[in-house]
Here is the input.
Amino acid sequence: MAEKTAGPPSTTPWWRARWVLPLLLLVLALIFVLENRDLVSIRLLIPIVVMPQWAALTITLVIGVIIGLLVRRRRR
Here is the structure.
């Protein structure tokens, strides 16, 4: 019987596999921004701030990530 030779480890180039997820996330972020351009008013204790909805949601996400990192670091 003929022996099978080992082929290349992967048929997908490393640069394509590495960039699929970041490009997908970029496309989703662009869709998110384009769909949430309306202005919203947000009350911060006393002042009322008017900003695009996507900016308010992004700021909330960043604050949540920072709090999560601080809590995670404290547990260790």
In short: The chain is about 60% helix and 15% strand. The chain has a mean pLDDT of 82. The longest helix spans residues 53-75. The beta strands are 39-43, 48-52.
